[in-house]
Amino acid sequence: MTLAATRRKPSLRGDGLGTVLLFLPPALLVFTIFVVLPIGEASWFSLFDWNGYGSPQHFVALRNYVRLLAFVPFRTALLNNLLVIAISLCIQIPVAIGAASLLSGPGRLTVVMRLILFLPYILAEVAAGLIWRFVFDGNFGLVAVAARELGMNAPFMLADPDLARVALMVVVTWKYFGFHMMLVLAGLQGIDPELRQAARMDGATGAQIFRHVTLPLLRPTLRVSVFFAVIGSLQLFDIVMPLTAGGPGNATQTMATFLYNFGITRMKIGFGSAVGVVLFLISATFSIVYNRWVPGER
Amino acid sequence: MSADARDRTGYAIACAGLVVLALFVLVPLLATALGGLKTLGALRSDPFGFPLHPRWGNYGGILAGGRYWRLLGNSLLIASVVTAITVVLAAMAAFVLAHLHFFGREMLASYLMLGLMFPAATAILPLFIQVRDLGLLDTYAGLILAEVAFALSMSILLFRNFFRQLPVELFEAARMDGCSYARIFVSITLPLCRPIVTTVAIITFVSSWNNYMLPLILLDTPSRYPWPLGVMDYQGQYSTEWQLVLAFITLTILPAILVFVLAQKQIVAGLTAGAVKG
Questions:
Q1: Residue B24's Cα: distance from chain center in Å?
Q2: Residue at A14 is within a domain
Q3: What is the predicted pLDDT for the residue at A8?
Q4: B171-175, long-range: CB < 8 A, 24+ apart
Q5: What is the value of pTM for the model shown?
Q6: What is the total count of domains within chain A?
Q7: Is the pLDDT of residue B72 over 90?
């Protein structure tokens, strides 16, 4: 809306202005105080060495960032976030597409199956993390018992850095693929079934129809799916805390758990804020670039 | 092999894959629920099997104690208030942003959408300082306002998109009749927007019910904890007695599963609408 257009159509006659002043400020105020100000403050605090008491005095310029980027646990955390993104895009979404195309029809069994596969998504991350902590437990867990049955040594998956990372990827997949499946199902419902019938009449195989008809039409859905997979992967926190708390030896830290473990529990506000700013810059850059360069329609 | 036969073989393999996927989802959940009925020894020797001598006492003890009910009560209180405030604030803001023309409207709308661009984790440290300086640390007021703030962007977006689809003639006619905007909001918009209220309420309630990070940072007193913090506490306390922890986990996720089974249509639609319409 341009200024000129606004002038030509002044619709704040009568009680318009009053309504704006009554309806908008509550949301603006809460949002500003609890979301925007903290983000702004994070970039300010990140320039100080500060324990959170009094006011920040010890200005260190960009030293927190330099330390952060050289700090091995943070690099591990960053890599873990990238790994989660890769797993989400290369395993979760393809599995979701596969499951959705098999479950797009009517029928009671399909509906029940869909709900089962969606179930992990509605459960709290904390519960998912704890359940899988049990599954991977070296003494009582399902994986350990299965290994013993097969005559192998029971692995303590969560005590081994590499296995713990694998475990985390398994849990992330378990928790979120159902969400992507539902998105794809919604997308499939928007596709005219006649298109597929027409392709079949022309002699296309199931695989060809999927590749050349269904997949291109799912593009807008997949665009949304990928966006949520990336943003969700970047903020991974709730699953990691009950599962490994970032251990063993920081092997499964993510940027968010790193921020919590090194910033908040040690009250290193400056250092922790720098982590927040890095996480913000990555997320915001991704959002902007993605929304600008990956078009929704065709 | 003909194309048709290949299609059929492929289909069979795919269906087998689905069954494996369903087992992957269900086995951990069932093992958790059944594990809560076992002794520690039985858990170690046979975690998959059905317990021959179910120990209902594991569950009974938790249900008889006050801890479980208090955690659920706290969560219910927090999530209900967060949902109510979010719906009201978001609907009001979205109404103005959808129906009134004023200078800076699009800028304000974009500003309120900022929350969609980054995760809450980025701001938790200064948020902690902010809430502390407001004197709201370890209070429900602080936690609830913070949760509302982080729910606003998505909610306003959903409401605004919905309001924009309502026919303009409706409002123009009402204005001709001398109806105030506030009156239009209450008597015309709100009654028409029940579906979107349901969607926003479901998204907000579920995310508050499951929220772990914000209460972890903003609350201190265990008696005020919502259940995700409480179940972590419980696990820390009884970490050597998995059977009790499993029973506790099962009971805490039970309400979510029950509600999901009863209202699956609305919940699936609600939780995916946020992504699709946003």
A1: 23
A2: no
A3: 39
A4: B171/B99
A5: 0.90
A6: 1
A7: yes
Question: Which whole-number Å values give the CA distances from B54 to B22, B34, B63, B235, B247, in the listed order?
Answer: 26, 9, 16, 21, 12
Residue B52 resides in a domain: no
Nearest Cα of chain B lies from the Cα of A22 at a distance, in angstroms, of 9
Q: Is residue A258 part of a domain?
A: yes
A234 has a chain B CB within 8 A of its CB? yes
Q: How confident is the model at residue A138 (pLDDT cuts 50, 70, 90)?
A: confident
Residues 6+ apart with CB under 8 A from A52: A267, A269, B129
In a domain, residue A257? The reply is yes
Phi first, then psi: what are they for B95, rounded to 5°?
-60, -50
Among the partner-chain residues B35, B48, B268, the one whose CB lies closest to the CB of A134 is: B35
Contact yes or no for B92 and A36 at CB 8 A: no
Residue A203 lies in a domain: yes
From B50's Cα to the closest Cα of chain A, the distance in A is: 14
Query: Which tens digit of pLDDT belongs to each residue from B253-273?
Result: 999 999 998 888 888 888 887
pLDDT in tens, B31-64: 999 988 888 888 877 777 777 778 888 899 899 9
- A to B CB pairs, distance under 8 Å: 297
Q: Closest chain B residue to A148 measured between Cα atoms? A: B45
> Please, which pLDDT band fits residue A5 given cuts at 50, 70 and 90?
very low
Q: Does residue B68 register a pLDDT over 90?
A: yes
Question: Are the Cβ atoms of B149 and A206 closer than 8 angstroms?
Answer: no
| Chain B interface includes A91 (CB < 8 A) | no
The domain containing residue A183 runs over which residues? 63-293
Domain count, chain B: 1
Interface membership of A115 toward B (CB under 8 Å): yes
Q: State how beta strands A58-59 and A48-49 pair.
A: antiparallel
ipTM summary value? 0.90
